[in-house]
Write a structure and sequence with these properties.
The structure holds 2 protein chains of 2 kinds. Chain A is of the alpha/beta class. Chain A folds into 3 domains: 233 residues, FAD/NAD(P)-binding domain; 97 residues, FAD/NAD(P)-binding domain, CATH 3.50.50; 69 residues, no CATH class. Chain A has 12 helices and 14 strands. Chain A is globular. By secondary structure, chain B is mainly alpha-helical. Chain B contains 7 helices and 2 strands, in the order H-H-H-E-E-H-H-H-H. Classes of the chains: A alpha/beta, B mainly alpha. At the A-B interface, helix 5 of A face helix 4 and helix 5 of B. Chain B: Pfam families: Rrf2. Chain B: One of its GO terms (cellular component) is cytosol.
Chain lengths: 450, 149
């Protein structure tokens, strides 16, 4: 093993972020890199997001935004054209999500072919990653280990619902067994995962009432094919408090709309600066944003394809879906039902309500307490002090260059993290357009050693 | 470009960055020591408070202090709040865009260069904290240091 440089890189997790990092590493001009990609599911590019099976589990970004490479935005669309899949709206088509998993697999295969012998893929469960003076040692469930110079955590989304008590389930998980189509069910959350849960029910021809409980009772908005407005960094008020930037943002939306434009153009125009805005804020401002603005921001920022949005609106209008603004407090088992306790928004603390449902889908809170992660690698790193939760406790603490920050002392330069786990620092790091940039940047750094 | 308002605001913030933690600075003192008209300074500090850069306490013993550590406050962030989007020409701002009467935006070569200029300005100002500016010896010294560099 070579003590200097970053020749052997072990990536833990073969979902979208792990695959994108591997691909960007293999495409680096430096030929010294060897990449080992370890994924417990044995399928690459198909993490929580891109393994969805339902026809209407669509990628929530049009095809033109989903290339694996920021500097070649048409890459995914060209791949789609070769597959012969129907593309009714050209590069504005929202394709089924499993197709995207296949695309990532192909991209990985191509990158590997570019560098014969440089990529090793392993279908194994990782138990722990330890750092030593010469590099990293990744312990596998089969008793062996992988030695390398650098380890990257790309473990993606938390797979266990945080509020479940073993009762609430994630859509499509093994414990999401078939239910009586006329039963009442509850979905927690107002984000895209909530829409996924609803789609899964709709596809299964569920006829019973669906209660959707979220803090504000909101629905994600629908996409519209409008161009983002052009904004330069010099226009954006970084580093202010929340009130100031919200006033600025609303004024910009008003002006854009007054000129005949669409609010989506402002939300999308600001996107290149979202991470910088987040990083420019004080911890207090970030906290306030999470508490007061995030629900509203998310429904405008993370939108669904127009036809799905219309179907959801119709389902609400027909009464099949009921939106409840309120707090989910608890769930317990009651005979063969789940008894959920909620409190509607604006009611006093004692005004709780219990509702018996056949199933509770937990689609809220992608932010996780890493100390209680269901992933042993993350739990072990935090317990040993090699990593720590970020200040807001929504992910793992990393630097702006993706170095994992230990509980004490300086970063090692040998342990990195990419993808949703880094949301404390990067905030919007759950969609491909953001992850591909993060991976390309880290790949460049690992390849050049600077 | 940097107006007197922006310059005074930066001077006031540098002044506040030197006040020991937990103490407040009086507006009168800041104005006198930095040669800023007090009424103007009142208005400037009001705007900085609205944007979250300073805290204030009213009353006889009232005054101002920084709302964030000086190393977190970037001078570009302050200038945007006081002087608007960083733009060498009005037509070079995207969000506060004002067209010139005498030329066509699409073909104006001057504007294109000025867009690059403003991005370069933003880059420098956003990478410079109050602490760094203070170390450089105040706004004027910093500006000339940048020009020499």
């Amino acid at each position: 093993m070579n003590a200097a440089g970053h020749e052997r890189i072990t990536i833990i997790g073969g979902g979208a972020s792990g695959v994108l990092l591997a691909v960007h590493l293999l495409r680096q001009p430096s030929s010294d890199l060897r990449v080992t990609l370890v994924e417990r599911r044995g399928q690459f590019g198909q993490g929580v997001a891109y393994s969805a099976r339902q026809r209407d589990h669509r990628v929530n970004v049009p095809a033109r935004g989903m290339s694996a490479f920021a500097d070649d935005p048409g890459h995914f669309y060209r791949w789609l054209q070769q597959t012969g899949e129907p593309l009714p709206d050209g590069d504005y088509t929202f394709v089924p999500r499993r197709l995207y998993g296949r695309y990532l697999e192909d991209v990985l295969r191509e990158a590997a072919a570019l560098r014969p012998g440089r990529l090793q893929v392993l279908s194994e469960e990782v138990l722990a990653i330890r750092q030593n003076p010469s590099g990293t040692d990744v312990a596998l469930a089969n008793g062996t280990s992988i030695a390398g110079h650098v380890g990257v955590l790309a473990v993606g989304h938390e797979t266990q619902p945080a509020r479940s008590r073993g009762i609430a389930v994630r859509v499509g998980a093994d414990d999401d067994t078939p239910i009586d189509p006329y039963a009442k069910v509850m979905i927690l959350g107002s984000g895209l995962s909530m829409v996924d849960a609803w789609i899964a029910l709709a596809e299964a021809d569920h006829r019973g009432p669906i209660l959707v409980v979220s803090r504000n009772g909101l629905l994600p908005r629908g996409h519209r094919d409008v161009p983002p407005i052009s904004i330069d960094a010099a226009d954006v008020p970084f580093g202010t408090n929340l009130g100031y930037i919200m006033r600025w943002f609303r004024a910009l939306v008003r002006e854009t709309q007054a000129a005949g434009g669409d609010w989506r153009s402002v939300v999308d125009g600001l996107r290149p600066y979202n991470q910088r805005i987040w990083q420019s804020w004080s911890e207090r401002t970030r906290r306030q944003f999470l508490r007061h603005v995030r629900p509203f921001w998310n429904v405008h920022r993370h939108r669904v394809p127009p036809h799905l949005h219309q179907r959801m609106v119709d389902a609400v209008a027909s009464g099949q879906v009921t939106l409840i603004a309120g707090h989910f407090l608890d769930v317990s088992r009651h005979e063969d039902m789940a008894r959920a306790t909620i409190r509607r928004r604006g009611l006093p603390a004692e005004a709780t309500e219990t509702i018996d449902v056949a199933r509770v889908y937990d689609c809220g809170g992608v932010s996780v307490d890493v100390r209680a992660s269901s992933n042993p690698v993350i739990r072990d790193l935090v317990a040993s002090g090699a990593a720590r939760p970020d200040a807001l406790n929504i992910g793992l603490d990393v630097t702006t260059t993706c170095d994992v920050i230990p509980a004490e002392g300086a970063v090692s330069g040998r342990l990195f993290a990419v993808g949703p786990l880094t949301r404390g620092r990067f905030f919007e790091i759950e969609a491909i357009p953001d992850i591909r940039v993060q991976c390309a940047t880290l790949a460049r750094r690992l390849a050049t050693g600077s | 470009m940097l107006t007197r308002k922006g310059k005074y605001g930066l001077k006031a913030l540098v002044h506040l960055s030197q006040v020991p933690e937990g103490q407040l600075a009086f507006v009168g003192d800041i104005a006198r020591e930095n040669n800023i008209p007090k009424k103007f300074l009142d208005a400037i500090l009001g705007e900085l408070r609205n944007a979250g850069f300073v805290y204030s306490r009213k009353g006889k013993l009232g005054g101002y202090c920084l709302a964030r550590p000086a190393e977190e406050i970037r001078i570009g962030h302050v200038v945007r709040v006081l002087d608007g989007p960083l733009a060498p020409f009005p037509c070079a701002s995207k969000t506060r865009y004002q067209p010139c009467e005498d030329c066509d935006v699409e073909t104006c070569q001057v504007r294109r260069v000025m867009l690059d200029v403003r991005n370069a300005i933003a880059e420098v100002l956003d990478n410079t904290s109050l602490v760094a500016m203070q170390a450089a010896g105040g706004p004027e010294a910093f500006a000339s240091a940048q020009i020499r560099a």
